[in-house]
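REQUEST ID: PR-0412
SUBMITTED BY: lab tech R.K.
PRIORITY: routine
TASK: structure prediction, single protein chain
INPUT:
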Amino acid sequence: MTTRKTWSALCAFAQLVGCAGNGDGLDPSGRPASSGGGGTLTADFASIQANVFTPICTQCHVGANAPQGLRLDAANSYGALVGVASSEQPGLLRVKPGDAAASYLIQKLEGNAAVGARMPLGQPALPDATILVIREWITSGASRGAVASATNLTVQTVSVTATQISIAMTQPVDASLVNATTVTLQSLDTTSAEPAMIAAQVAASPVNDTLILLTPKQTLPPGHYRLTLRGTGAAALADWSTTVIDGNGDGMPGDDYVQALTVGGAQ
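STATUS: complete
OUTPUT:
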């Protein structure tokens, strides 16, 4: 009877590994091996992207309508995770470098988050070995690792909650230029002729040098807003090489970046 139970448990674990995209099972170290062409899963961002986020998470978390605005495709995932407040639990970061237990991503993968269901939704839970690798990456600092250098400083992705707006850039931004003058938020739901400026604290993230954080002094009510990053004039956002932001994405530095945002249940 014990042997039969043990064999059944092993079979169930093997099925979980297969459903999570790790069809070759575990390597000699007990880690998930190959996953959808991403190679052996290791505790670095590129490997986790190739083996977990891309083949599994992007079945839902992709595009403009990604759940909770969390896009986990290769172009957006790092900027949407590391140092970004969770939209379900704004007091927690999705990934808090150095602290896996306090990272909302881990809580969702392990099924002990205070809000919502375990991820990946509607699929078998990731194997413990896979989650352990993601934990190791976060504990070691959640580094992005080597990435191809983008030519210009542009906005990569914007994550919105009622208490914080996180703006991920393609390059590390000069933190001395990040302030309430170069990054502004306006309410579009106003009876006056001009949009109303929202008072906010603006700063570069202390844990992700490509991330700008705009924290309103008061929780944003549901509504429509305009985010602007200044790319013109004497005071303009730039990277550490003094290259000004390419605000309109035309391949040339300069021009403001402007995006309409919706908070809460506004229609």
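NOTES: Residues 1-36 have pLDDT under 50 and may be disordered.
REVIEWED BY: pending
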